[in-house]
Amino acid sequence: MSAAERPFAKLLVLDLDETLIHARDRDEPPLPWPAQRQVARYHVHLRPGVREFMSSALQRFVGVGIWTSASTEYATAMLDRLVDRRRLRFIFARDRCTQVWDAEREQTYWRKDIAELHGFGFGPGSILVVDDKPKGLECSHANLIPVRPFEGDPEDLELPMLRRYLEQLGPLDDVRQADKRRWREQFEDEDFDLDVS
């Protein structure tokens, strides 16, 4: 195996809702685009390129996990037919998050503390977290790759761009050293083929 094909010795942690998928309750008004699947009471829109992205992530990273603030039952149902769950290092749900009160906004949010991940054998400099809600990772911003929330748009290019960006971060000794706040700017003028299946 060449160095270019060798998996990155990193843990890639992916949020689920508005990062990989968009799920709408059947009682909510439908989006103008058809959903790709129905799961329980939800119409589920897959983010364009999600299958290719997941396949690539599972090949390129030593560890890939899902961390959502939803319930475990919801997460496993949504992941069925999207990814072989046995290939994931873990599926963390709401029980691995801490509910925090935001006094400024007068609402609660879910915090994800990457200390929960240390038992997997990865140091803080080897953990990347992809999430559309940066507030939940306020204690670990240096590990965060923020993505735009996915709301069902079939022209969304976030995952194809992110896949390319991860190829740059993977070889780094400490991913916290890279400024990831404006990562997508370097790809906005490029063309990407979309997997809309």
From TrEMBL:
<dbReference type="InterPro" id="IPR023214">
    <property type="entry name" value="HAD_sf"/>
</dbReference>
<dbReference type="InterPro" id="IPR036412">
    <property type="entry name" value="HAD-like_sf"/>
</dbReference>
<feature type="domain" description="FCP1 homology">
    <location>
        <begin position="5"/>
        <end position="169"/>
    </location>
</feature>
<dbReference type="Pfam" id="PF03031">
    <property type="entry name" value="NIF"/>
</dbReference>
<protein>
    <submittedName>
        <fullName>NLI interacting factor-like phosphatase</fullName>
    </submittedName>
</protein>
<dbReference type="InterPro" id="IPR004274">
    <property type="entry name" value="FCP1_dom"/>
</dbReference>
<dbReference type="InterPro" id="IPR050365">
    <property type="entry name" value="TIM50"/>
</dbReference>
